[in-house]
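Second opinion, please. Please look over this fold, written as tokens:

===
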Amino acid sequence: MPAFVSAASRVFQVLETFAKEKKPLSNSQLAKKLDLAESSCSDLLYTMQESGYLLRTPRTREFYPTARLMEIAQSIAASDPLTAFAEEVMDVLTTASGETALCGVLEGQQLKVFASRSGTHALRYVVPPGTLFDIHTTALGKAIVSEMPLAERQALLAKIELAQITPFSVVDREVFVKEIEKCAADKWCLAKDEANRGVSAIGIAGDVGGKIVSLSLVGPTHRFEDHMDKLVALILDVRKKYFEDG
């Protein structure tokens, strides 16, 4: 059976402490926060410094993380299969429609935009990666919920807050549950003026490497109304081709 390596755990605790404190710290300060003997903490910090993960300030001799960890994280993220999936599929969606394409994942009780590709129209909707939305107001969020196993879906729907973001946001829980059931049956979801007035989106979701991921097209409501059938056909075709359960 694998064993828990305390020394390795301490490294993560050091980095998490710096993330929380957001300032350089001395050996004695870190030892106290980590409940370590100062001699043991000194050895740990020296090892991390020699490995390039910590630097020591010239005057105060305090420690602080270098950019090495961020560089490694960025390199890992660039090779993330989900990143490659999102980039390829968003390119297909945007090229075919001219609209902005988004990829979303669930983060707690909210929807996080994992990646985005801006549309080619002069009037387009721009959303930076990392943006958080309420689940009930977005096609991305509705699509993810509609693909969840029934028990998980019901548990989430029972506890999320249905806030009134615009006059068109669905705030009645029974109505929202029925909408999600329709999404699950149709395999696509619509959000019309619900997160932002004048902005609509259609979304799909499915399995990518064991994780439920959603995709959507988003743009001005008037343009979506004019081309809804074409956009729905496009996004359903993408679902069939790119999702493991499509």
